[in-house]
Recover the amino acids of this structure.
């Protein structure tokens, strides 16, 4: 029987939040998964449904659900969370950019972060609401948590999309492909071909530059491609898998090195901004940002991404 410990709260019980709760519960490593939403009854209903799947799927983690209000009602049920995943907010519609969500989601995320911080002052906060880099910076400001305890999900997902694109193009198993994306979760995403390989061979040895460029572009556009097909709402299977892995690294204090949106303080010659970089993740959040050798053009693209998100983050974090 595996040992279960820790409480993880998922704020927002929409597509992203509910699939995340399912993945976390099915890991069977947490004591409790708490799901919240402002829609009356929805989190409790989903929690009951998930609990009823336990005898079939064979997990013991208990799922609970609570409806919250903007003035903080219900948040007492989230008290003492070790990890809080923030998915509250609107998703994109076809033709929208993530930045189009800025104003409405900033209001939601600010309120959520303040309420969460009050009841779980020692939690690690993982942000997924879009626009991701800006909402991560805003969550840190609103919670007043140390920067290492607030980070965002983008890199695991973008990297998985890049890997899937390479694997399907070559017709090889995804397990034989390694890829990496850094930078922002948006137009200035920085796919890193120098860190990509197929069965240990550099990407440039197994496909031509035009194909690599095409796959990089498709990766950058990965979220919009799904949104355009779905017509309403955005992706959630791969995104929930990505954030669940991050929460797992925290609760297991694993030290896994994964691409996340983390506070950068001097690495790559960049300072004072939340940016997609590789980081070692443990019980206290980001243990350290891990720098790797980049080509000159990759480094230039990362610095360009940093300046683009710095300007946008200033918009949401300046009172
Ligand atoms: N970081 C990423 O890689 C990534 C990927 C996909 C989606 N997203 C983002 O995740 C967010 C959620 O996406 P979704 O598909 O689940 O959308 P959704 O519309 O299905 O769910 C959002 C939920 O948030 C709830 N909500 C709104 N205000 C709230 C509040 N104050 N407190 C608690 N809950 C509240 C809504 O009632 C709704 O149920 C969106 O902003 C989307 O753009 C991020």
């Amino acid at each position: 029987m595996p040992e279960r410990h820790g409480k993880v709260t998922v704020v927002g019980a929409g597509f992203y939040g509910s699939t995340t709760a399912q993945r976390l519960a099915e890991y069977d490593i947490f004591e409790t998964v708490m799901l919240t939403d402002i829609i009356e009854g929805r989190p409790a209903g989903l929690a009951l449904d998930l609990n009823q799947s336990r005898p079939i799927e064979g997990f013991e983690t208990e799922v609970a659900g609570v409806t919250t209000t903007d003035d903080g009602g219900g948040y007492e049920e989230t008290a003492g969370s070790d990890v809080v995943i923030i998915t509250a907010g609107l998703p994109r519609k076809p033709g929208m950019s993530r930045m189009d969500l800025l104003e409405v989601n900033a209001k939601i995320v600010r309120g959520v972060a303040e309420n969460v911080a009050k009841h779980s002052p020692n939690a690690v906060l993982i942000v997924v609401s879009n626009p991701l880099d800006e909402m991560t910076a805003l969550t840190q400001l609103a919670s007043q948590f140390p920067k290492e305890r607030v980070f965002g999900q983008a890199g695991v997902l973008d990297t998985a999309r890049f890997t899937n694109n390479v694997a399907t193009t070559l017709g090889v198993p995804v397990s034989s492909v390694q890829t990496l994306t850094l930078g922002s979760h948006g137009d200035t995403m920085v796919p890193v071909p120098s860190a990509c390989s197929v069965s240990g061979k550099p990407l440039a040895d197994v496909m031509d530059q035009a194909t690599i460029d095409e796959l990089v572009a498709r990766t950058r556009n990965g979220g919009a491609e799904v949104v355009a097909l779905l017509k309403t709402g955005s992706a959630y299977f791969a995104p929930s898998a990505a954030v669940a892995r991050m929460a797992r690294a925290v609760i297991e204090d694993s030290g896994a090195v994964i691409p996340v949106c983390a506070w950068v303080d001097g690495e790559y010659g960049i300072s004072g901004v939340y940016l997609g970089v590789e980081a070692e993740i443990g019980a206290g959040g980001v243990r350290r940002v891990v720098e790797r050798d980049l080509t000159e053009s990759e480094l230039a693209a990362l610095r360009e991404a940093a300046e683009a998100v710095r300007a946008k983050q200033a918009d949401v974090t300046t009172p």
In short: The pocket of nicotinamide-adenine-dinucleotide is lined by residues 11-17, 36-39, 68, 87-92, 101, 105, 108, 111-112, 128-130, 132, 153-154, 157, 185, 233-236, 239 (CB under 6 Å). The first helix runs from residue 15 to 27.
